[in-house]
């Protein structure tokens, strides 16, 4: 519906920067939801936002969608300032997930036609756009059915299709594959990759680190409203060391006791209470023996031990641990 319009005033950075914030802050009464957040995403890339509940992800997405004004700093999306040019921003972004709503009384196709009409398309082009999207998303066979009869995977595809009716330059994907089976997840990932290859810029919020690893060109980790880490998946992984050992201690001991024993041996273990494991960054293979010795010394048996390259999960756990322990210096990873 709209191509990229060159903004009249000077952009904060180069033309192909599609999302950019400069020291964005947001306060809700006494709550500081965002504190000096700086992020950047180039055209045709995926920026993933990671963070625990309450980290500030939704607040940031709302600011970038020009649905909520920042308290301080500035943000530009597709070259437009979210505070001074909110209408231009809204015309260029597509929202999915908790933001988009499909009418349960209408069929999948009727929903897409309605959205196109609401965006100003005439009847014929609205139908043409709906059919184009139904084909792109493999929804032709379900076009006349109501979304209430769709599977989870089909609903996500319709939701994403709905966000693309206006041909946005930037889409915000909010947990796009939560609750989907593996093949539906893969299908959705392939669709997103196709859109990105055509130049769409994606801001992805997800709780699945494998999703961020697969899709994201860069990752920003938010904690309590601040950016605590940022970079490519490879850069983030490099910050947590080359290799790790993951130990599952006997449940009678548990990860905290195992972590304490390993700390006494001079290591820096990260307990993962949810999975009942402890992750230890190691320099060399011989360090595995030191892990086993330290546990044995404390009388703790390991029921499972695995050796691996760092994953984004390791990065996330290490960052979470940094956040919960008092530290005299700033986090090791700069945005
Ligand atoms: N309208 C509001 N009024 C008051 N506080 C708010 C409001 N919106 C968000 N907050 C607070 O701001 C902080 C950030 O919330 P936000 O919803 O952005 O986090 P989130 O990372 O998206 O979390 P979740 O994953 O649970 O959605 C939280 O402490 C939240 O309670």
UniProtKB/TrEMBL annotation:
GO molecular function: ATP binding; ATP hydrolysis activity
Residue span, ABC transporter domain: 19-249
Pfam family, one: DrrA1-3_C
Entries under InterPro entries matching the protein: AAA+_ATPase, ABC_transporter-like_ATP-bd, ABC_transporter_ATP-binding, DrrA, DrrA1/2-like_C, P-loop_NTPase
Cellular component GO terms, alphabetical: plasma membrane
Compartment list: Cell membrane
Keywords (A to Z) from UniProt: Antibiotic resistance, ATP-binding, Cell membrane, Membrane, Nucleotide-binding, Translocase, Transport
Protein topology in the membrane: Peripheral membrane protein
Gene Ontology BP terms: daunorubicin transport; doxorubicin transport; response to antibiotic
SUPFAM superfamilies reported in the protein's UniProt record: P-loop containing nucleoside triphosphate hydrolases
Family: Belongs to the ABC transporter superfamily. Drug exporter-1 (DrugE1) (TC 3.A.1.105) family.
Name used for this protein in its record: ATP-binding cassette domain-containing protein
Organism for this UniProt entry: Streptomyces luteoverticillatus
């Amino acid at each position: 519906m709209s191509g990229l319009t060159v903004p009249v005033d000077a952009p904060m950075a180069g033309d192909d920067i599609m999302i950019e914030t400069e020291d964005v802050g947001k306060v809700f009464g006494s709550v500081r939801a965002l504190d000096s957040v700086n992020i950047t995403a180039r055209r045709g890339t995926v920026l993933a936002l990671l963070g625990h509940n309450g980290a500030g992800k939704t607040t940031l997405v709302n600011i970038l969608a020009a649905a909520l004004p920042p308290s301080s700093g500035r943000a530009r999306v597709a070259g437009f300032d979210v505070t001074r040019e909110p209408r231009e921003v809204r015309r260029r972004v597509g929202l999915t997930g908790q933001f988009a709503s499909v009418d349960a009384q209408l069929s999948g196709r009727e929903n897409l036609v309605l959205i196109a009409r609401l965006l100003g398309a005439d009847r014929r082009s609205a139908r043409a756009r709906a059919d184009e999207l139904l084909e792109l998303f493999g929804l032709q066979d379900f076009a006349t059915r109501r979304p209430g009869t769709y599977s989870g995977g089909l609903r996500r595809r319709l939701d994403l299709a709905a966000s693309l009716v206006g041909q946005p330059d930037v889409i915000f994907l909010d947990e796009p594959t939560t609750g989907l089976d593996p093949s539906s997840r893969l299908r959705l990932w392939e669709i997103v990759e196709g859109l990105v290859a055509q130049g769409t810029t994606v801001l992805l919020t997800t709780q699945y680190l494998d999703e961020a690893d697969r899709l994201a060109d860069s990752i920003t980790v938010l904690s309590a409203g601040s950016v605590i880490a940022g970079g490519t998946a490879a850069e983030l992984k490099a910050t947590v060391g080359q290799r790790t050992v993951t130990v599952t201690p006997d449940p009678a001991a548990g990860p905290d006791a195992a972590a304490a024993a390993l700390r006494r041996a001079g290591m820096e273990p990260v307990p993962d209470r949810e999975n009942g494991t402890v992750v230890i960054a190691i320099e060399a293979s011989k360090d595995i023996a030191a892990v086993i010795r330290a546990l044995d010394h404390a009388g703790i048996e390991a029921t499972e031990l695995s050796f691996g390259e760092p994953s984004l999960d390791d990065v996330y756990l290490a960052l979470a641990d940094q956040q919960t322990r008092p530290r005299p210096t700033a986090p090791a990873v700069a945005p």
